Amino acid sequence: MEYILLLIIAVGLAFGVGCLGRTRKIGFGLAFVISLLNVVIGLIAVLCSKKIENVEPKEMEESL
């Protein structure tokens, strides 16, 4: 039972790192996969990746 809880936490953390990767060149998918293997390495990869320029939040795009 505790393994399922740890798996849910690990996937949740990987999803969070993937969301950080959306605005970076690494992208959501690659950041998510790397974070599934190791969350710390995934976070380092996202933070080392360059930001994509001219990214607008989705809320601003929908209001236009």
Overview of this structure, please?
The protein has helices spanning 2-21, 27-37, 39-48, 58-63. It is mainly α. The chain has one domain (2-51).
Summarize the structure.
By secondary structure, this protein is mostly helical.
Average of the residue pLDDT scores: 88
| Helical amount | over 70%
Largest sheet: none
What is the strand content? Answer: under 5%
Derived structural class: mainly alpha
Annotate the secondary structure layout:
Elements: H1 2-21, H2 27-37, H3 39-48, H4 58-63
Helix pairs in contact: 1-2, 1-3, 2-3
Brief descriptors of the model:
64 residues
